[in-house]
Predict the structure.
Amino acid sequence: MSTNSSVLLLMLLSIATVSSFSIVNITQSHRGCGAVGINITPILNSANVSEITPCCIQHDACYSTCNISKSTCDNNFYTCMKNACTKAASSVCFKYAKIFYEIVKRLGLLSYEISQAVSCRKKTG
């Protein structure tokens, strides 16, 4: 299995795992890449694409900003990763960036909705 396929499989598994939690049990985390509760930053480090980790942290924080649109967060995430990959001059990094962007764009709705519910509830409560 290629590295890209492994990362994609891990991300899909992460999203499936997240969907089994109730909102009450989820705590917001801005620690790195991966769906809530699952950190894939060590995988990125071993693939020498750790430069995108700050973008993941910013993306998590964006999802947790009450009333911001999902598309704004996802597009900013992709821009951040492309900039990081340009600075690192890494073609592998660009591959990971594209995969991660497609994952959050297509499968990140649950994480976005949970983060919005928690952050907006904190703002009004």
Notes: The helical segments are 3-18, 41-46, 53-63, 70-88, 91-107, 109-124. The CA atoms of residues 76 and 100 lie 12 Å apart. Residues 12-28 have pLDDT under 50 and may be disordered. DSSP finds six helices and no strands in the chain.
